[in-house]
Amino acid sequence: MSRLLKIDSLQTYFFSAAGVVKAVDGISFDVNQGETIAIVGESGCGKSVSALSILRLVADPPGRIIGGSIRFRDRDLLKLSDEEIREVRGKDIAMVFQEPMTSLNPVLTIGRQLTETMEQHLDMTRDQAVARAIELLGMVGISDPERRLRQYPHHFSGGMRQRVMIAMALCCEPKLIIADEPTTALDVTVQAQILELMKDLTQRLGVALIIITHNLGIVARYADRVNVMYAGRIIESGTAHDIYHHPHHPYTLALLRSVPRMDQPRRARLDPVEGQPPDLSRLGAGCSFHPRCGFAIARCTTQSPPLERIDGGDHLAACFEADNVARSMARSS
Question: What's the pTM?
């Protein structure tokens, strides 16, 4: 597979009177054509800011991308002019935002919100755009699409609004879709429908997908590769199989142990991740996870572990005790 997106040492900070918040602090990863990548972690770890940084949608002030590069099809998006990056948004890279009701314009019909993008980016006539919008709504499973085009967002349920957002993301046939918590506030049945729809469409159309989520069930079923984030950094990266069956970072292990599993005997209680996420404006020396870590050693309090390859493969982990973590997982499996 050819590489579509390459992010190298990306840093996005927020500057305020209270201090500098290092929301994204030097992350690197790539996405291949037609691949599904998951970015996983607790709230506040930098997942959404990473996605917004790709499209340069971080509000300035207070946020600013201060370092690194984001290369999409060999173009550095950070060096494009405002007009050039607007051409990329929607046309080459599309985004499905976390809450569709706040992302859709309540005073415009669904049809107008779909056709506007196609008229702007694809130079379609109104009739051509309407015909394409009807086709897209049908593709994402909305019945009677011609009538639905004339309705407003409040006429749609949460799941149907999310389908509309997916249709909007697909309307210009992008090469990459970023889905930021695409199943938030949806019931379990609708979540499964939306995720199956996205996976089916990306496979059928050859579109790459970045899913940002805290739901490890989504990761297991839909992702090819996984990046686990903590305190603005990627602390483990690998295939979904490696992350689930051979984790090498204590945080990844803690996330897995905090989720009920159907393939193991029922336990009396789940093991929560102890403690609280760190304040990103007051990160001290050493590993950011060490105050919550059961594997921490003296070295963890003074040195930040680099993201290193496990056994020379594509599995990466940033932990001085990675081998002990792996052994602990093996004993509990």
Answer: 0.91
